[in-house]
């Protein structure tokens, strides 16, 4: 094995040296240049060198006809952010990307592009504005980026690849969507009843036209957040009420286009504290609203659907012991549709980077845990105008996040962090059923249970080095009664384990694994336009297991600058067709630096 990957290690050593030299040059400059930059212009950015070698093995190779079963690829990338403040109320930034693919010598495989451009400032000391690239989030039912499938409590061994995906697709920890347009924000203060009112408005173009069939598409809207702490004296309560509106529409006046959509979602969200003392806080929270979806032809509505949703819950927080619990009611109508909230991160129709088609029939390989943890080609931040495909093994109860339509039931969650921060626990459960049957009057029942735990062993003692264990689990079951053709029974489980041990200052030993199993049958609807179920393919029958294991080292040179060397092994087994079993093995090396 060592001999097999020796050439890869040598390639990385060369790349690391070249990258280190290039990055050192970026930071060089005269004292005069540095002084001027501190005043008006600042330079920062990210540099990354990655190389990976991936091997395909297993019974599926017996049906191959000389196809390549080994791929080596990588990139050298430098993003330089130029940030300028021409005056006290204006700031502009642009990011220039320089990229070269592995083996791209003498200009081959090189690219130079502008990754980001924006400007922001303050008007009359009242209104904040931003134009260009921006991140927007409103609520889980209006404008929101739900977390992808196959993730509970990701092990540290898989974090570097996750960071690459997040950076490349502009994902943030706040579930924001990356848009390009304009945004205005302002706040108002009041002396009675209300304390503050925060107003936000935005507009963005999310698709350009081809002048024939695809119209220019826009999304716009805003929110008004009303915050009050003054009612406490009179009623003993305080609260935050937010009004949200978001609209997506097509411009059908350009070229030969005569049809488009109109999608509007209006909601009211609330979080009201009804009781509070130094130890206990009791709150009512939730969101309710409606959506409209219109298909327009020649400026005339030819199809219209209206959907509603309601979520309401009670939250209890024990401040002293760090314990939180929430129980609520979840009701999302079958016709509820929200372009900005139901678009997924993972596009299962995308071509995979590694071995997209395999086997004698050259069939498309189903994305598995291996692909979801690292393959940027599967991920997108673009907003979709229709419900995207999903993998029922990974998420069948809520494939489109909390905004998944046609669901009703209970939601229960709890989390706890110990005072010494040794333990961090959380659990969440959805017990749901359909409101409207699909292809039958019988209704499906869904159970979704997720539990995570993080144990910081180093906080038990006076150890200076970090030792951390992460555990994650997700269990789902889908069932439906009826005659034989209506019966549904699909179960799946996902287990995650991760170990992070600082064996020497700044040198970490990483290990972890993910284990997926799914068995049973289901009927996956074919959604041709928006929420409309047009047909059902043959019954989806599955009995599969997936195992992803990884181990490696990571050395932190300083904050946000590190190098990691990893080996990861993935195995897919199909009990219904052993000839389709296969394994993927990958050596992965990454040097990443934020400066």
Give a structural overview.
The protein has 595 residues and is mainly beta. The protein has a single domain (6-594), classed as Beta Barrel (Maltoporin, Chain A), CATH 2.40.170. It has helices at residues 6-26, 31-39, 159-168, 232-235, 339-342, 369-372, and strands spanning 41-57, 70-87, 90-101, 110-123, 127-136, 177-189, 196-207, 216-228, 238-251, 259-276, 280-297, 300-318, 323-332, 357-358, 363-364, 407-417, 423-433, 445-456, 467-480, 488-504, 507-522, 525-529, 532-536, 540-558, 561-574, 582-594. It has a 22-stranded antiparallel barrel.
Mind sketching the topology for me?
Blueprint: H1 6-26, H2 31-39, E1 41-57, E2 70-87, E3 90-101, E4 110-123, E5 127-136, H3 159-168, E6 177-189, E7 196-207, E8 216-228, H4 232-235, E9 238-251, E10 259-276, E11 280-297, E12 300-318, E13 323-332, H5 339-342, E14 357-358, E15 363-364, H6 369-372, E16 407-417, E17 423-433, E18 445-456, E19 467-480, E20 488-504, E21 507-522, E22 525-529, E23 532-536, E24 540-558, E25 561-574, E26 582-594
Antiparallel strand pairs: 1-2, 1-26, 2-3, 3-4, 4-5, 5-6, 6-7, 7-8, 8-9, 9-10, 10-11, 11-12, 12-13, 13-16, 14-15, 16-17, 17-18, 18-19, 19-20, 20-21, 21-24, 22-23, 24-25, 25-26
Q: Domains counted in the coordinates: how many?
A: 1
Coarse morphology = globular
Beta strands, count: 26
Largest sheet: 22 strands, antiparallel, barrel
Task: Detail the poorly predicted runs.
Answer: 1-37
Instruction: Let me know the average pLDDT.
Output: 87
**Which architecture does the CATH hierarchy give at level 2?**
Beta Barrel
Content of β-strand: over 45%
Oligomer: single chain
Gap from first CA to last CA:
36 Å
Radius of gyration, rounded? 26 Å
Instruction: Tell me the number of helical segments per DSSP (H or I, 4 or more residues long).
Output: 6
CATH structural class: Mainly Beta
At the third CATH level, what is the topology name? Maltoporin, Chain A
How helix-rich are the residues, as a percent range? under 10%
Q: By helix and strand content, what is the structural category? A: mainly beta
């Amino acid at each position: 094995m060592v001999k097999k990957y020796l050439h890869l290690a040598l390639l990385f050593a060369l790349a690391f040296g070249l990258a280190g030299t290039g990055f050192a040059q970026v930071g060089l400059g005269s004292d005069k240049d540095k002084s001027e930059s501190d005043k008006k212009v600042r330079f920062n950015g990210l540099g990354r060198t990655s190389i990976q070698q991936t091997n395909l093995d297993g019974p599926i190779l017996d049906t191959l006809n000389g196809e390549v079963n080994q791929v080596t690829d990588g990139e050298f990338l430098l993003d330089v952010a130029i940030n300028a403040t021409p005056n006290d109320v204006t700031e502009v930034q642009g990011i220039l990307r320089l990229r070269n693919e592995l083996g791209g010598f003498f200009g081959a495989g090189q690219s130079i592009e502008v990754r980001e451009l924006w400007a922001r400032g303050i008007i009359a000391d009242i209104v904040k504005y931003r134009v260009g690239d921006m991140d927007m989030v409103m609520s889980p039912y209006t404008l929101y980026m739900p977390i992808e499938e196959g993730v509970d409590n990701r092990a540290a061994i898989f974090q570097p690849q996750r960071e690459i995906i997040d950076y490349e697709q502009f994902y943030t920890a706040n579930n924001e969507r990356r848009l390009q347009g304009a945004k205005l924000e302002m706040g108002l203060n009041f002396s009675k009843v209300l304390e503050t009112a925060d107003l936000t408005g935005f507009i963005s173009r999310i698709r350009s036209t081809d002048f024939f069939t695809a119209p220019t598409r826009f999304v716009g809207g805003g929110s008004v957040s009303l915050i009050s702490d003054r009612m406490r004296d009179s009623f003993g309560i305080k609260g935050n009420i937010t009004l949200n509106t978001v609209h997506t529409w097509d411009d059908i006046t350009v070229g030969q286009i005569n049809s488009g959509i109109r999608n509007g979602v209006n909601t009211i969200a609330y979080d009201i504290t009804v009781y509070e003392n130094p130890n206990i806080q009791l709150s009512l929270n939730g969101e309710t609203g409606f959506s409209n979806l219109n298909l327009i032809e020649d400026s005339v509505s030819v199809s219209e659907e209206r959907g509603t949703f309601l979520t309401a819950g009670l939250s209890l927080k024990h401040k002293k012991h760090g314990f939180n619990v929430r129980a609520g009611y979840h009701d999302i109508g079958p016709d509820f549709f929200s372009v900005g909230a139901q678009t997924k991160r993972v596009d299962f129709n995308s071509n995979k980077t590694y071995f997209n088609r395999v086997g004698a029939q050259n069939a498309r390989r189903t994305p598995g845990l291996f692909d979801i943890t690292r393959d940027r080609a599967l991920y997108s931040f673009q907003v979709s105008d229709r419900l995207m495909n999903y993998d029922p093994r990974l998420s069948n109860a809520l494939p489109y996040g909390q905004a998944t339509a046609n669901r009703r039931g209970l939601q229960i969650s709890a989390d706890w962090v110990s005072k010494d921060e040794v333990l961090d626990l959380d659990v969440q459960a959805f017990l749901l059923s359909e409101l409207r049957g699909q292809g039958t009057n019988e209704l499906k029942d869904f159970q979704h249970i997720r539990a995570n735990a993080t144990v910081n062993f180093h906080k038990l003692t006076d150890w200076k080095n970090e030792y951390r264990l992460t555990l994650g689990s997700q269990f789902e079951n889908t069932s439906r009664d009826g005659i034989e053709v209506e019966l549904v029974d699909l179960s799946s489980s996902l287990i995650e384990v991760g170990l992070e041990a600082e064996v020497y200052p700044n040198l970490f030993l990483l290990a972890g694994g993910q284990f997926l199993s799914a068995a049973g049958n289901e009927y996956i609807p074919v959604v041709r336009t928006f929420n409309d179920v047009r047909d059902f393919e043959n019954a989806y029958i599955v009995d599969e297991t997936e195992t992803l294991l990884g181990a490696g080292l990571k050395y932190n040179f300083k904050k946000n600058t590190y190098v990691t060397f990893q080996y990861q092994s993935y195995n897919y087994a199909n009990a219904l067709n052993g000839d389709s079993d296969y394994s993927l093995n990958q050596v992965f090396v990454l040097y990443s630096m934020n400066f």
